[in-house]
Request: fold
Amino acid sequence: MLSLHMRWNRMVDTAITNGRVVTERAVTDADVGITDGRITAITAPGTLHTTATDVIDAAGRLVLPGFIDSHVHVNLELGEYTTTDEMSDLTRAAAHGGVTTVIPFAVPDRDESPLAALDRRREEAAGDAYVDYSFHGCLTEATETSLAQVPELIDRGATSIKAFMVYEDRLMLDNGALRDVMDRTADAGGTMLVHAEDNAIIGRLIERHREQGDMAYDAHADTHPPVSETAAMWTVSELVAESECPTLLVHASARRTEEIATHAERNDLPLAVETCPHYLALTDEVYGRDDGEAFVCSPPVRSNEHREALMEMVSSSRVAVVNSDHCGYTMSQKRRHRDDITRMPNGLPGVETTGPVLYTEAVTGGAASVRQFVRLMSTNVAKLFGLYPEKGTIVVGSDADIVIFDPDEEWTVEPESLHMATDYSPFQGRSVTGRAETVLVRGERVVDEELVGKPTVGEYRHRTPGSTGRHYREL
Reply:
């Protein structure tokens, strides 16, 4: 239960009154007081309105910790494509979706070091973010020069390192290189995120399709079968067992991920699983549509059997976090090479819609409680990436990152009503329930039905390595 401070006579900057406060542990009718950007009081309902200079009436609303999206791509150049959003675009859309902290990737350009990439990303973001932010470091090669920079990345607050097992022309680490990076990251007290797909399986299937002249977007799922994902995940699992490096398997889409999660739990491995809303709400039928190229992402959206299995993992808490894997392209970019899956841009926009889609599919759909929703969107992410308890929960002393969420609002996702720097959504035309109404970042209103904040609100969050491995085992 929340600890309610029943008497409160001191003034607070902002009082959120009459709401239903939700944390990972409890759902409680309470008022929340905010002073100097932090939560300073949690009291019985209706007790704070006379002690505040600003009062937000949250009657009939859920008062949630701000969502944290730790899987977003911004201003990313891959091949002939660059994603459509700058940091201000990404964080504006994030705020409208209830996301109060984002963690993009500092992917090095060619001939750029991991540390230089982090410095560049921080410089690009400074003064241009509506919400708080941090960055994941990224290694695209395992030279001694790159490996030697891992401790410094972690010291600078990028305590998590991303690695790819695919995209061999730009990002891929082979298994030996991945092992080196995991060892070095574990030694430095960091954590890993791994895009796990087997590049050899995918490459062989692409060549077969090329020989048959079948390279259009509807072949994408066939060239990225479930086994290409789970085979790579088992490799990562064994490397985690050897290195003891806390690791998040990102964007899981295959049903047999459950076996890997169960194996990790039984063997006390610091290995966690992330999935994304498109794997919980869509099926591979989208690749049979005339606009099927809009849904090309890796791993691909899979059959309903896989969707149902992932939802069961959400229900049983074997999925630890749900992130967007936001990667914004336009339909023009998606269509440019719709007949050649090797040249199409991979990725879907979604930073703004993750909360409502997950709430609709999991909470309204009966697979998860609202407390599980908070764990998936806020608490677990904060724990895994060194932000808890400053973020990810509502307790006295935490940052006042808060979402006033209407759990009953029904609305239809349409691109023109969203704020992402793209002209489509994979969920367009879909009816969803639940919406972020008012969003505060460290006590400052950024969204109040409309955007009211400025792109100078967001601050860089310097994360410190802590008991991350313990948190992985506690999720």
The mean pLDDT is 95. The first strand starts at residue 12 and ends at 22. Residues 204 and 387 are 41 Å apart (CA to CA).
